[in-house]
């Protein structure tokens, strides 16, 4: 196994020189993700002729942090974050997952406290680094940004927090009282650009809004240990 890994590594270095880059990029398989895949945070999918082609596609695209290759079907999936709790993993035979050298300090890096999160404006939430409240993750620049040119379908959760007094739509039907149900409603709304939502699973409320903590008074963004409401920030689309 070690020698196989080395061969891939050396060949990639070679490919990288072919592309004119001077940097090398080590690749590590995440052995806890086998025969599982996801499309959340995925920005490109293609058919490749080999595992090496998939690695080369990832390394030559500056937005690629992690890739998955299906050894059976040769489907190659590129991701602009590490695989995190925000990825819905489903079982599918043949998939393996690899992190590139860009995964160090990237969105989704493991952490135990905020000081472990080196990317600007990231904090440690549930043992992974993600953008702080109000910041959206850009899959294009791999940074946390104050606003996006185009908003995507992924959200990050800030627990026990909400923006006071800015709800434009309140939904109570059971299909909206989950993170994915309320998120889909936020993405689907056309009368305004939905930038965030709040979910109260205890009292069965999904609130859609067109603001982030940066667009309201500081005093209107509340982080309260006792509240049953969680805040979800919409992230940018890959364009
Ligand atoms: C592998 O992926 C799992 C699931 O996303 C993650 O929790 C873990 O930290 C990853 N392992 C490494 C070594 O990055
Ligand atoms: C993954 O699926 C392959 C068949 O594609 C099988 O041979 C292998 O044992 C499976 N690995 C794990 C860890 O489940």
TrEMBL record:
Residues 1-20 form the signal peptide. The keyword Glycosyltransferase does not apply. Pfam families: EB, PAN_1. It comes from the Eukaryota. Residues 25-101, 148-236 form the Apple domain. SMART domains: PAN_AP. The keyword NADP does not apply. Keywords: Signal. This is Uncharacterized protein LOC106062796. It comes from Biomphalaria glabrata (Bloodfluke planorb).
């Amino acid at each position: 196994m070690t020698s196989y890994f080395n061969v891939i590594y050396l060949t990639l270095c070679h490919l990288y020189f072919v592309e004119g880059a001077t940097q090398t990029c080590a690749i590590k398989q995440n052995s806890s993700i086998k025969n599982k895949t996801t499309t959340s945070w995925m920005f490109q999918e293609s058919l490749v002729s080999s595992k090496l082609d998939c690695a080369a596609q990832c390394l030559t695209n500056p937005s690629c942090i992690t890739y998955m290759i299906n050894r059976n079907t040769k489907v190659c999936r590129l991701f602009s974050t590490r695989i995190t709790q925000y990825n819905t993993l489903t079982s599918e035979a043949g998939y393996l997952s690899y992190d590139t050298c860009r995964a160090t300090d990237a969105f989704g890096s493991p952490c135990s406290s905020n000081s472990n999160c080196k990317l600007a404006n990231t904090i440690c939430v549930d043992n992974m680094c993600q953008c702080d409240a109000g910041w959206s993750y850009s899959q294009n620049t791999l940074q946390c940004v104050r606003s996006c040119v185009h908003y995507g379908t992924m959200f990050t959760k800030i627990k026990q927090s909400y923006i006071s007094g800015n709800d434009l739509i309140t939904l109570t039907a059971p299909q909206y009282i989950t993170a994915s149900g309320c998120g889909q409603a936020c993405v689907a709304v056309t009368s305004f650009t939905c930038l965030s939502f709040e979910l109260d699973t205890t009292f069965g409320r999904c609130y859609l809004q067109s603001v982030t903590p940066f667009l309201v008074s500081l005093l209107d963004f509340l982080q309260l240990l006792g509240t049953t409401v969680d805040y979800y920030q919409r992230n940018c689309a890959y364009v």
